[in-house]
Amino acid sequence: MRFETSQQMKLGQQMKLAPRMIQSMEILQMPLAELAERLEQELESNPTMEIAERDGGEGVATREDDSRASDGEMTIDSSGESDFARLDEYEHTNPEATDNLYERSWKGEEYQGRVSSGGGSAGDADSKMEAMAQAPARGESLGESLEHQWALVDVDERTRALGETIISALEEDGYLRTDFETILDTAPQGIKALEPTESDWESALQALQLTLEPVGVAARDARECLLIQIDMKLDRVVSPERSEEFKDEGEDLLAARRLVAEFFEELMKNRLPKIAAKSGMDLEQINRAIEILRRLSLAPARVEHMSDAAAIFPDAIVEYDEEGDRYIARLTSGRLPDVRINQEYARMVADQGVESGDREFLRKNLSNAQWLIDAIGQRRHTLLRVVSAVVDEQREYFDYGPESLKPLPMKTIADRLGIHVATVSRAVSEKYIMTPRGVVALRSFFSGGLSTDGGEDVSANAVKAMIEELVENEDKAKPMSDEAMVKVLQGRGVDIARRTVAKYRDQLGIPTARMRKQFAN
Fold it and tell me: Measured on CA atoms in the order 488, 494, 500, 503, is the torsion positive or negative?
């Protein structure tokens, strides 16, 4: 075996993204709520950035004036080059003139229009602290909420310790899918020293299920989750002050409990006639019990603790202009504070009397602040262009509804605006727009499509809307099969296969015809 070294030359191309370019992409991709949080973090950590007082205005940028920020000027060239890029280039090519650059900014010369994301007068030194103080606090996680509740429950110390251990083993949806033996194996030594029995674990788990909210948490499966919720309702119904009402409501609750306890598998398969034959209950009573079950949740912890995360804040508003017979898009900005560069710190950077270390610290923070302001402006500029182009392409949707959606590849918008497809993808990611037809995900306007008999294209989302309409209007006693839907859609000129209908139906969360069937006496 022989080892040797050699030199080789290889020619190739490699693209490297600067950290700030990567961060600009992240800013573009952020939904409005996340961007507001990012801006609040910068306000808290960067002393050179401050909140400017708003001087009126609606806080929106329209298609006709997409270079303006919420209430003031944000300078962005039509070339799409951000002001920060030019500022950064100036600093590197003219290092000796950097101090004069910030001095000109303070004096209102070359860069005055580029240091603010909004209007407002100077002053109000407490505006930043006031904005941060009014910012909503981080919500409690499920585990934190349950631990706080458990600390107030009156139980013995042994049960309390076991309960805390069970809470730590719960999954994100609130279910306990780990057996007690495994929990004990991974528990701290203090818990192992208690040598808990199966009965001890069961007692602690029952105490959790009976005392903690949301009701149904700490269940081991869907069946137990429903039983916990039903039992809690039964306890309230049979209370002394409501005993007279028990006969009406309580009988249906008892029927619902029996369905879950004895016929859960048949219930999940919608085999109601079989349940009626075995249980002796008539179909009317079973249907009333099922209505009660529909009001319960199979994952109550997930529903309650995901509500804040699921809140939607539209990035844009689309309105109809009667005079111009067109739809106009404008950006919302109510959740974003109006920020600018603190001019006092800008002066200190140019002051030779300030220590060099302090000046360097301020220079770095001023640079970061200016970059973030420009990045947000560039985001607004790009997003408004994309939304406006989508509105133009999907005019029929706004006029006639979801069934009129056209196939719209992202490349079509990218080519129209002269930008990369990846930029369009980031711009529409997790963005929502408020339209005359409700709040809609911006990404939903982009999809492939199918051909009609007339040679026209119809969007996949439009076909899904047709399927939803068919299911909504079908005979509930004889729901439409996938094959029946294919025939109806083909009758409307949409050439579609049965497996495609089944795929779209699954994506819409619509059960099969057998599961949708409703039984009557």
Answer: negative
Q: How far apart are CA 163 and CA 169, in angstroms?
A: 10
Give one DSSP letter per residue of 11-53, joined into a string.
Answer: --------HHHHHHHHHHHS-HHHHHHHHHHHHHH-TTEEEPP
Q: What is the dihedral of CA 158, 160, 163, 169, to 10 degrees?
A: -90
SS3 311: coil
The three-state secondary structure class of 448 is: coil
Sequence-ordered list of residues with C-beta below 8 angstroms from that of 473, at least 6 positions apart, any chain: none
Among 248-262, 279-293, 299-313, 372-386, the least confident range: 299-313
Question: Mind listing the pLDDT tens digit for each residue in 42-97?
Answer: 899 999 888 876 554 444 444 444 434 333 333 333 333 433 333 344 334 443 43
To the nearest 10 degrees (0 to 180), the angle between helices 283-294 and 272-279 is 120
In angstroms, the CA 447 to CA 258 distance is 46
* pLDDT tens-digit readout, 491-513: 888 888 899 899 889 988 898 99
Handedness of CA 23, 25, 28, 30 (dihedral sign): negative
Q: Which of 440, 380, 426 is nearest to 65 (CA)?
A: 380
324 vs 73: CA distance, rounded Å: 26
Nearest to 392 by CA among 342, 456, 325, 455: 325
Q: Which of 43, 48, 118 is nearest to 344 (CA)?
A: 48
**CA 59 to CA 57: how far, in whole Å?**
6
Angle at 82 between CA 81 and CA 87, to 5 degrees: 110
Q: What is the DSSP annotation of 212-249?
A: SSSTTTT-SSHHHHHHHHHHHHHHHHTSGGGGGGIIII
- The residue written with tokens 């949708």 in the block is 516
At CA 383, angle to CA 379 and CA 385, rounded to 5? 125
- Domains defined for the chain, CATH in brackets: 23-129+311-446 (no CATH), 142-305 (no CATH), 449-516 (1.10.10.60)
Q: Kindly report the pTM of this predicted structure.
A: 0.55
Q: Pick from 232, 226, 224, 217: which is nearest to 172 by CA? A: 217
Please give the structure tokens belonging to residue 9: 């030359």
Q: Name the residue type at position 233.
A: K
Helices (H), 49-121: 83-93, 98-107
Q: What's the per-residue H, E or C state across 113-129? A: HHCECCCCCCCCCCHHH
